[in-house]
Amino acid sequence: MRHAIGIDIGATNTRIALGNDEGELIEVVTFKTWDYQDPNLYLEKIAYAIRELRAKYKVEVAGVGVGSPGPLDMARGEVVAAPNMPFKKLEVVRVLKELVNLPVAFANDAVTAAVGEKFWGEGAGLDNLVYVTISTGIGGGVYVDGSLLLGKDGNAHEIGHVVVDSQERLTCGCGKKGHWEAYCSGSGIPKFARFIAEHEKVEGSRLMTGGKLEARDVFEAYRVGDPLARRVISEVKRFNAYGFAAIVNYYDPELVTVGGSVALNNPDILLEGLRDSVKNYTVNRPPEIKLTRLGANAGLLGALALGLGLERKVPLR
Ligand SMILES: [Zn+2]
């Protein structure tokens, strides 16, 4: 049996796992990404966790796979300007290789999750597969004809930045207007709720009466029939249909799986009726659209697959 290390760099948590080639995560170490403001100290913390895991389990490790929020410079193995991270630049491949003396494979976190889906999830045996994450942002990873799409810098899948609002009401974290992520992500939904509260007359809502508004507050209010939350979520569902329709039209997948905390916590709301709504905007034969069964581990399992050298488009180096 072969073993490798998978690392899931997240805007909130960083998770490091030792796993094997059956897709089993043997132990997962988690720490808060924001506890480390210095990129080198952060990578040293990761290296320390890898050394501890190797010392504890005494197994041969094939390599280290890393998934990180983009945008990336894949050729250089760096995160160049992640919007939700404590550091601007992170030289993942060069520094980690030095610190742990193992080959490293590196990709965008949503791409990594698509790799997880392909090797150990619902995508096994499928050549045309899209994984969509709806969490702090919206991202995706895409297989077409069995080949993982990367693009010139490894950012071929920035589907969260497809334009869904021709009125351009909200500005995205990337600085551009009307993007899907600006309305329907974990960070976008509260902003969208605030915008609607300010610009439309919705009577009888208690949604804006609290302090800090989060996506989960909007979903909770929706569940108890709050009129503003109902209005917001119906708009979110409409824009999700546009976003998923773009994916179906561009990539013609057999299957679309959905993960990310916002989707994983609210599949009954977000996936309900989605496929039928998508059909209103697509020309291609509609694929199945379903929640990932890998849960919050899709990215970590994909990173493990990269660490084992299983995905030829993202080799260990
Ligand atoms: Zn954007």
Overview of this protein structure:
- With 317 residues, this protein is an alpha/beta fold.
- Helices cover 37% and strands 20% of the residues.
- The protein is built from 11 helices and 12 strands.
- A 5-stranded mixed sheet has the order 3-2-1-4-7. The chain has a 5-stranded mixed sheet with strand order 10-9-8-11-12. The chain has a two-stranded antiparallel sheet with strand order 5-6.
- A hairpin with a 2-residue loop joins β9 (138-144) and β10 (147-148).
- α3 packs across α11 (298-307) and α5 (188-199) crosses α7.
- The two termini are 21 Å apart.
- Residues 161, 172, 174, 176, 179, 181 line the site of zinc ion.
Give the gist of this structure.
The chain is an alpha/beta fold.
Secondary-structure map with pairings?
Blueprint: E1 3-9, E2 13-20, E3 25-32, H1 39-57, E4 61-68, E5 72-73, E6 78-79, H2 92-100, E7 104-108, H3 109-120, E8 129-134, E9 138-144, E10 147-148, H4 180-184, H5 188-199, H6 215-223, H7 227-251, E11 255-259, H8 261-265, H9 267-270, H10 274-279, E12 288-291, H11 298-307
Parallel strand pairs: 1-4, 4-7, 8-11, 11-12
Antiparallel strand pairs: 1-2, 2-3, 5-6, 8-9, 9-10
Helix pairs in contact: 1-2, 3-11, 5-7, 6-7
The protein binds zinc ion.
